[in-house]
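A quick word before the example. In earlier lectures we treated sequence and structure as two separate objects. From today on, think of them as two lines of the same record. Here is DUF4194 domain-containing protein written that way.
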Amino acid sequence: MEQDITSLTARLLAHRWLPRNDVQVRRALVDEAFRHELEQRLANVGLQLLDNPFAEHVAVGLKDDVLDSVFGGRDYQASTMGLTRDEIALLIVIWALIILPKRERQLGRRTREDDGQNDMFGQEKPIVHGEEVSGAVSEASLLADFGTQLGGKTKIRNFALGKLARLGFIERRGGYILEGPLLDVLLDYRVLADRIINGTLADVLAAVGRQLPTQSDLDDELLEEEFGGDAESHE
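And the structure line, produced from the sequence above:
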């Protein structure tokens, strides 16, 4: 166990993230003693294991109690991985367009090609990860919708998207933006989802013709999948 923990700790520090299906990562997720020792070693240097069961990767990040000592007294960008406010806004928009629909599919145990209508036992399936549930956003569409609001099309295309890709938040393939290894790990769904669905970003998306489902819509859809009828009939 000692060698495996040393190896996994070193790999996490070197690569910042690892896939959940990695042999040593899988052991850390199911072996309580192994995980405890891993977390202790990371804690000794002010780090913690970031694990989201809906994400395809795990990562390491700073513990809350060392944030001030690491970033205290430094400028705004030091604590945001060097991202400007426009780039952070772009990141949140991409997160909303990719992760919110992805999470809805995961909770409904559906893939992008499957609407779940013919699967009576869908809720008993394990959570699906990867491109089966995570969609893509067209770069051209994103630039057309948000280019003006987020610093200009040229700046987004040539600089901002490249920076988000280098940091591991997104991947760019053939004119499309896909989920990167850190998009669903570093951004906390529990904090962001309600703020986005019910907050100011919903107004921004509506202004450019995009609409996010409300939490009520999501709840109704899940009830309909479970009971086969509308939510009102089960109140």
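Notice the following. The longest strand covers residues 57-62. We will return to this example when we discuss secondary structure assignment.
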